[in-house]
Specification:
9 strands, 261 residues, 6-stranded parallel sheet, globular, Metal_Hydrolase, TIM Barrel, 3-stranded parallel sheet, Amidohydrolase-related domain-containing protein, 15% strand, 41% helix, alpha/beta
Amino acid sequence: MLIDSNAYIGHWPFRKFEYNTLEALWGRMKEFGTDASIVSNLHGVFYKNTQHANEELHQAIGSKRVYKDRFIPFAVINPIYGGWRDDFEVCTSDMGMQGIRLYPKYHHYDITHPSCVELVKMSRDKGLPVAFSLRMVDNRTSSWIDIEKEWALKDMIPIIKAVPDAKYIICNVANSTNLSEEDLKLFKKTDTLMDSSGRALIDWPGLLTKFGKEKFCFGSQSPILDYCSGLLRIESLREREADEKTKELLRSGNLMKMLEI
């Protein structure tokens, strides 16, 4: 089985994307043998009211019966925007969203802002994962209007320390994975996954040894990145680097356990 932990629909204000509708994404999934995808709406990164993006995603998934079986919706919530608690409740209770995605840099709040910590705790209490993207697009080729500073893995540690019993999906680990010995111990104890889309995840044998095979999952970051790279990083592992059982954990097993499916 193959489950994509990191896909989007919608437009990006600074670039034109292909495959950015559910129909196009579903076509890519069939092409690469993907059974299901976690999906969010890119519009939520830029809409002042992120709930409008969640409503768009909910309507799109409801437009075809097949979509309900293949797409796992994650809501974009901005915890410093008025009414976010109501948005969270509507998304998770009424719309059936199965996780949330947060964008502190784009929505201009610190990762340990009290409302962010509260939102992560609310997600924890419902058993829902919280996804963070360390990078959305390569800042070397992005618009001057876009953000410049990117995150490394260590930048996630403050929120993990604040809510160590939450579930985290860390997407597009494009920069350093170095952690202090203390932070690495904490990271390994938490229910955290890193998706395979990030360019920093190239030394898979070393990463599997350092973090453990239970800490990774397939992710494409489609349509921002090409669909193949995140999958190729898993499928190209040699037998001595990862046996078939380990590959199944990376393809879907670890994510299914987190999502309880």
